[in-house]
Amino acid sequence: MQESATISGASQANEAKHPGELRANRALKMPDFRLEERLTAEHLDFFETYGFIRFKRFLPRERAKALHEALGEITAELVKRGVNEINGVPLIGGKRDDGTPYFGRIPFASLQHEEFRRYLRDPRFDEIIRVLAPGYRIGEEERDGLVVNRFRNEPGAKYKNLGWHTDSLRDLFYLERPRRYLNVGFSITDSPMAVGGLRVLPCTHNQCIPSMLFHKTHFLDMNPDENEFAVETEAGDLTIHDGRLWHRTALAQGHGDASERCVMYLPLMTGPVVKKHEGSRTPFYFHLKKLVGY
Ligand SMILES: O=C(O)CCC(=O)C(=O)O
Ligand SMILES: [Fe+2]
User: Fold this and answer.
1) Would you say 238 and 64 are in contact if contact means Cβ atoms under 8 Å apart?
2) Where residue 69 falls among pLDDT bands split at 50, 70, 90?
3) Minimum CA distance residue for ligand 1 atom 10
4) 198 in contact with ligand 1, CB cutoff 6 A
5) Cβ(106) to ligand 1 under 6 A?
């Protein structure tokens, strides 16, 4: 690595309620990695060591803005048609203080708008798959497809934050051994510390399966952890984290529009292709999520 990772950001000692909060909510200062055509040895070293990486300005800000506008168009269309699930995957609704509706989580976004379809066609995703996830494919019509999350902090929001979890848990619900699963996230809006955002426990991608299952209570545990780091991003940045890494989405400090954070995750799939369709049943996983309030 050119530069070692260092920490920055004020811990919020004055608001600490749990012992972990004294040290929590620090930003990890990383090198400004860029993803051009190829992943470099330096990228791989960082990713393998910490379990995540961030690429600055993967797309220019204008493209992120166009994606945000596309999200608005999809939302308006879904609201107009009174849709509450897509291919068996429930939409998570929300209401702004002025009563206007939106969705906290929209699956299969690339099947609904050209701008999201175009995003998935970026050749650099082929490079990420070739190096980090050989044998995987972009499953636009599988599982949840391209998911767009819109986290907001207001009384009408259901998707304000996410408790601690590992994404590989999903494999267990599909009765598969947790694999190295990549989560490739794109920031549609800026995600500084104030809008909450991604918090990770670095290096936990190397843990054993019991620890992946029981280190924390999946989704219910929302407490800051003294060993967590915030991965701050700007609109246009790309992050990759290993599916076995413990992470959460922190609650924004602001409210309403000031708290909005939009991020989308690539649908990386392996194994037999099971395409979703209008008659697809809701997976058990979502019933479980509903039980814990999402
Ligand atoms: O907010 C984020 O960036 C992470 C979201 C997440 O972990 C998930 O949807 O599984
Ligand atoms: Fe996750």
Assistant:
1) no
2) very high
3) 167
4) yes
5) no
